Fold:
Amino acid sequence: MFSSEQSKSAARLLTALSVSAVLSAALTVSSCRTNSGGTDAFIPAAPDWSDKAAWYISEPATAQEADIFYILPTCVWDWTTEDGLTCRYSDYTRTDHIEAFRPSVELAEDIFAQGQYGFYCPYYRQISLNVWMDGEEAVEELFPLSMEDISAAFDYYLDNYNKGRPFVLAGFSQGGKAVVELVKHLPAEAYERMVAAYAIGYRISDEEVEQYPQLHPATDSTGTGTIISYNSAASPEAACAVLSPSDVCINPVNWTTDAVPAALNDSVTVTVDTLSHLLIVDGLDPEAYFLSSLAPMFPLGNYHLQELTLYQEHLRRNTALRVRNFTL
Structure:
């Protein structure tokens, strides 16, 4: 069975998304400031990365062995200004958006930082859940602005917070997409200090791996300078079309890329499907993890929202292992 902490973490995330779905239609505040060029859409002003309010940062009391640079998943929906104009990006100056980020931030901090590494999470202008549900074309049209923020935030982190330490890149869903893009274009000096990159819940193609040598897929639990990626579902038919297919998948339970099943607990097994490159989870009740408000993206049997909570103990131990191997 799952631990009480795993159950609590999953419940917090599901509750946050459910409440967001209910409230999204009612949001009517005017913090969007920059016209996007259209007559019915605005975007927020770019974050000021020197403003501490644009970050979630936690640093241990003792000397930091390594840092975690974490990129948030999608947490907000489209919203409207008091003039009735649509905004398709988050805005860190909005209290409700910060509250929507909080469950994901706290879960990731617990998993990756573990109280011993510095944790740096920028509140970038993420595209909304509605954009993702509109499909890949909408995502590719609007995500470049989000990526501009992330790249600028990462540069600011390197210049002002990192102090030459090794770092782990980590992100989930939209954050996973951003991790892939960051790794592609990391300067050589920064890549040399990258312990690993966790691009969870997003796809990586063989073509990308061939074009960008820094996208080096992990094949075990110990390698450094590698990228870790997987997408979970009860069956290939339950895959999310926008996040799949991928050509990269590793099992975060036994840290292999073959089809050998791994026991997550006494009733759940996790297996890499080497044809679909999905992580097939057998033994869960799909109904217990289904959100009807997100059904257009995540059909019954898709476990995207559980990519961190299902494997949190394995990810926690693996992060520490890769940091230890890197710093030996």
About this structure: The chain is about 35% helix and 15% strand. The mean pLDDT is 90. Helices lie at 4-23, 95-113, 129-134, 136-162, 174-184, 188-191, 206-211, 312-327. Residues 218 and 226 are 5 Å apart (CA to CA).
